[in-house]
Amino acid sequence: MPINYLLPALLLLSVTTCAQLKQRAIFYETFESSLCSGTMILDSLGYFFQEGGCGCDPMTTISFGRYTIDNGGVVSLRYLPKDSLGGIREIRRRHTQPDSMLTITIYDRWNVPVDGMYGFKLYGSDRDTVVRTNEHGQIIVPRREAKHLLIQTLFSLYEEQEDLLAGNENRIDIYLTLPYTYMNFTVLRFRQPENGQLELRKDGLYDLKSGRQIYCRGKSD
Q1: Which residues span the domain enclosing 38?
Q2: Tens-place pLDDT, residues 127-139
Protein backbone atom coordinates (compact mmCIF):
# COMPACT_ATOMS: atom_id res chain seq x y z
CA MET A 1 0.00 0.00 0.00
CA PRO A 2 1.41 3.48 -0.86
CA ILE A 3 2.80 5.23 2.20
CA ASN A 4 0.94 8.45 1.35
CA TYR A 5 -2.39 6.70 2.10
CA LEU A 6 -1.42 5.56 5.56
CA LEU A 7 0.64 8.40 6.96
CA PRO A 8 -2.10 11.06 7.41
CA ALA A 9 -4.45 8.51 8.95
CA LEU A 10 -1.91 7.08 11.35
CA LEU A 11 -0.98 10.53 12.60
CA LEU A 12 -4.44 10.58 14.18
CA LEU A 13 -3.78 7.44 16.21
CA SER A 14 -2.18 7.01 19.60
CA VAL A 15 1.19 5.27 19.82
CA THR A 16 -0.28 1.96 20.94
CA THR A 17 -0.57 -0.99 18.58
CA CYS A 18 -4.38 -1.08 18.81
CA ALA A 19 -5.64 2.49 18.90
CA GLN A 20 -8.58 4.81 18.27
CA LEU A 21 -8.88 8.12 16.49
CA LYS A 22 -7.97 11.11 18.64
CA GLN A 23 -10.84 13.07 17.10
CA ARG A 24 -14.33 11.90 16.22
CA ALA A 25 -14.71 11.40 12.46
CA ILE A 26 -17.74 10.80 10.26
CA PHE A 27 -17.66 8.83 7.00
CA TYR A 28 -20.35 8.79 4.28
CA GLU A 29 -21.25 5.82 2.10
CA THR A 30 -20.21 6.25 -1.51
CA PHE A 31 -22.94 6.22 -4.16
CA GLU A 32 -21.54 2.92 -5.43
CA SER A 33 -22.30 1.39 -2.01
CA SER A 34 -25.80 2.78 -1.48
CA LEU A 35 -28.47 4.77 -3.29
CA CYS A 36 -28.95 6.93 -0.19
CA SER A 37 -25.82 7.77 1.73
CA GLY A 38 -25.44 6.01 5.07
CA THR A 39 -22.90 7.01 7.69
CA MET A 40 -20.17 5.54 9.88
CA ILE A 41 -18.86 7.45 12.90
CA LEU A 42 -15.64 6.50 14.69
CA ASP A 43 -15.34 8.35 17.99
CA SER A 44 -12.31 9.01 20.18
CA LEU A 45 -13.35 6.46 22.85
CA GLY A 46 -13.28 3.42 20.58
CA TYR A 47 -16.99 3.28 19.65
CA PHE A 48 -18.38 3.21 16.14
CA PHE A 49 -21.93 3.98 14.95
CA GLN A 50 -23.22 2.77 11.59
CA GLU A 51 -26.44 3.80 9.84
CA GLY A 52 -28.04 3.17 6.47
CA GLY A 53 -29.53 0.51 4.24
CA CYS A 54 -33.26 1.30 4.18
CA GLY A 55 -33.40 3.82 1.37
CA CYS A 56 -34.43 7.47 1.39
CA ASP A 57 -37.28 7.39 3.89
CA PRO A 58 -37.88 8.04 7.63
CA MET A 59 -36.61 4.56 8.49
CA THR A 60 -33.00 3.34 8.71
CA THR A 61 -30.99 0.36 9.97
CA ILE A 62 -28.37 0.94 12.66
CA SER A 63 -25.47 -0.98 14.20
CA PHE A 64 -22.84 -0.01 16.74
CA GLY A 65 -19.89 -1.47 18.62
CA ARG A 66 -16.23 -1.09 19.53
CA TYR A 67 -13.32 -0.63 17.15
CA THR A 68 -9.52 -0.62 17.13
CA ILE A 69 -7.04 0.45 14.45
CA ASP A 70 -3.67 -1.24 14.07
CA ASN A 71 -0.47 0.31 12.78
CA GLY A 72 -1.29 -0.90 9.27
CA GLY A 73 -4.53 1.12 9.17
CA VAL A 74 -6.83 -1.91 9.55
CA VAL A 75 -10.02 -1.03 11.45
CA SER A 76 -11.41 -4.02 13.37
CA LEU A 77 -15.14 -3.74 14.15
CA ARG A 78 -16.71 -5.67 17.03
CA TYR A 79 -20.49 -5.32 16.94
CA LEU A 80 -22.41 -5.03 20.22
CA PRO A 81 -26.00 -6.05 21.05
CA LYS A 82 -28.74 -3.44 21.10
CA ASP A 83 -29.17 -3.40 24.87
CA SER A 84 -25.52 -2.46 25.45
CA LEU A 85 -26.58 1.17 24.89
CA GLY A 86 -29.85 2.09 26.54
CA GLY A 87 -30.94 5.09 24.47
CA ILE A 88 -31.19 7.71 27.22
CA ARG A 89 -28.15 8.37 29.40
CA GLU A 90 -29.59 11.01 31.71
CA ILE A 91 -32.62 13.24 32.21
CA ARG A 92 -32.28 16.51 34.13
CA ARG A 93 -35.50 18.16 35.26
CA ARG A 94 -35.76 21.68 36.67
CA HIS A 95 -38.45 24.02 37.85
CA THR A 96 -36.68 27.32 37.37
CA GLN A 97 -39.44 29.89 37.85
CA PRO A 98 -43.16 30.27 37.24
CA ASP A 99 -43.49 29.77 33.51
CA SER A 100 -46.35 28.72 31.30
CA MET A 101 -43.97 27.23 28.72
CA LEU A 102 -42.12 23.90 28.84
CA THR A 103 -38.65 23.77 27.25
CA ILE A 104 -37.14 20.38 26.41
CA THR A 105 -33.58 20.22 25.05
CA ILE A 106 -32.21 17.07 23.41
CA TYR A 107 -28.46 16.31 23.40
CA ASP A 108 -26.74 13.44 21.61
CA ARG A 109 -24.05 11.20 23.16
CA TRP A 110 -21.46 13.97 22.68
CA ASN A 111 -23.66 16.63 24.34
CA VAL A 112 -24.44 18.31 21.01
CA PRO A 113 -28.01 19.71 20.73
CA VAL A 114 -29.99 17.68 18.16
CA ASP A 115 -31.67 20.19 15.88
CA GLY A 116 -34.41 19.35 13.38
CA MET A 117 -35.28 16.10 15.16
CA TYR A 118 -38.93 15.26 14.45
CA GLY A 119 -39.40 11.90 16.19
CA PHE A 120 -41.40 13.24 19.15
CA LYS A 121 -45.01 12.67 20.04
CA LEU A 122 -46.60 15.02 22.55
CA TYR A 123 -49.75 13.81 24.30
CA GLY A 124 -51.95 16.69 25.47
CA SER A 125 -55.21 17.01 27.31
CA ASP A 126 -57.26 17.33 24.13
CA ARG A 127 -55.00 16.28 21.22
CA ASP A 128 -51.79 14.48 20.30
CA THR A 129 -49.13 16.25 18.25
CA VAL A 130 -45.93 15.25 16.46
CA VAL A 131 -43.32 17.93 17.19
CA ARG A 132 -39.70 18.58 16.18
CA THR A 133 -36.75 20.33 17.75
CA ASN A 134 -35.69 23.82 16.67
CA GLU A 135 -32.19 24.94 15.63
CA HIS A 136 -31.12 24.83 19.30
CA GLY A 137 -32.29 21.26 19.81
CA GLN A 138 -35.32 22.44 21.78
CA ILE A 139 -39.04 21.79 21.91
CA ILE A 140 -40.96 24.70 23.44
CA VAL A 141 -44.66 24.13 24.10
CA PRO A 142 -47.30 25.46 26.52
CA ARG A 143 -46.99 23.45 29.74
CA ARG A 144 -50.75 22.96 30.03
CA GLU A 145 -50.77 21.16 26.66
CA ALA A 146 -48.03 18.69 27.65
CA LYS A 147 -49.23 15.64 29.56
CA HIS A 148 -46.92 12.96 28.19
CA LEU A 149 -43.93 12.99 25.84
CA LEU A 150 -42.55 10.08 23.83
CA ILE A 151 -39.44 9.93 21.63
CA GLN A 152 -40.79 7.82 18.79
CA THR A 153 -37.31 7.17 17.39
CA LEU A 154 -36.16 5.47 20.60
CA PHE A 155 -39.47 3.68 21.13
CA SER A 156 -39.23 2.11 17.67
CA LEU A 157 -35.82 0.69 18.65
CA TYR A 158 -36.30 -0.41 22.28
CA GLU A 159 -40.11 -0.88 22.27
CA GLU A 160 -40.44 0.76 25.67
CA GLN A 161 -39.71 4.13 27.24
CA GLU A 162 -40.47 5.93 30.46
CA ASP A 163 -42.63 9.04 30.38
CA LEU A 164 -40.33 12.01 29.96
CA LEU A 165 -42.69 14.34 31.85
CA ALA A 166 -42.62 13.57 35.55
CA GLY A 167 -44.22 16.52 37.31
CA ASN A 168 -44.40 20.31 37.16
CA GLU A 169 -40.94 20.89 35.70
CA ASN A 170 -40.61 23.57 33.05
CA ARG A 171 -37.13 22.69 31.79
CA ILE A 172 -35.98 19.19 30.82
CA ASP A 173 -32.57 18.28 29.41
CA ILE A 174 -32.35 14.83 27.82
CA TYR A 175 -28.93 13.28 27.13
CA LEU A 176 -28.86 10.36 24.70
CA THR A 177 -26.38 7.50 24.35
CA LEU A 178 -26.84 7.54 20.56
CA PRO A 179 -25.41 9.89 17.90
CA TYR A 180 -27.29 12.69 16.19
CA THR A 181 -27.15 10.80 12.87
CA TYR A 182 -29.65 8.25 14.24
CA MET A 183 -32.10 10.88 15.40
CA ASN A 184 -32.93 12.15 11.93
CA PHE A 185 -35.25 9.14 11.52
CA THR A 186 -38.55 8.24 13.14
CA VAL A 187 -38.02 4.46 12.89
CA LEU A 188 -34.80 2.61 13.73
CA ARG A 189 -34.18 -1.05 12.94
CA PHE A 190 -31.28 -2.78 14.64
CA ARG A 191 -28.86 -5.20 13.04
CA GLN A 192 -25.90 -6.96 14.64
CA PRO A 193 -23.68 -8.29 11.83
CA GLU A 194 -20.65 -10.49 12.25
CA ASN A 195 -17.47 -8.70 13.27
CA GLY A 196 -15.53 -7.28 10.35
CA GLN A 197 -12.61 -5.18 9.17
CA LEU A 198 -12.10 -2.15 6.96
CA GLU A 199 -9.01 -0.28 5.84
CA LEU A 200 -8.54 3.35 6.86
CA ARG A 201 -7.02 5.69 4.28
CA LYS A 202 -6.80 9.46 4.27
CA ASP A 203 -9.94 9.82 2.13
CA GLY A 204 -12.15 7.15 3.70
CA LEU A 205 -12.73 3.49 4.57
CA TYR A 206 -12.08 0.67 2.10
CA ASP A 207 -13.01 -3.00 1.76
CA LEU A 208 -9.97 -5.10 2.66
CA LYS A 209 -10.47 -7.78 0.00
CA SER A 210 -11.59 -5.81 -3.04
CA GLY A 211 -9.92 -2.49 -2.27
CA ARG A 212 -13.22 -0.73 -3.09
CA GLN A 213 -14.03 2.47 -1.23
CA ILE A 214 -17.06 1.97 1.03
CA TYR A 215 -17.10 5.30 2.88
CA CYS A 216 -15.65 8.68 1.98
CA ARG A 217 -14.34 10.85 4.77
CA GLY A 218 -16.30 13.78 6.14
CA LYS A 219 -15.42 16.19 8.89
CA SER A 220 -13.56 15.47 12.12
CA ASP A 221 -14.26 17.26 15.38
Answers
A1: 3-80+192-220
A2: 677 788 999 999 9
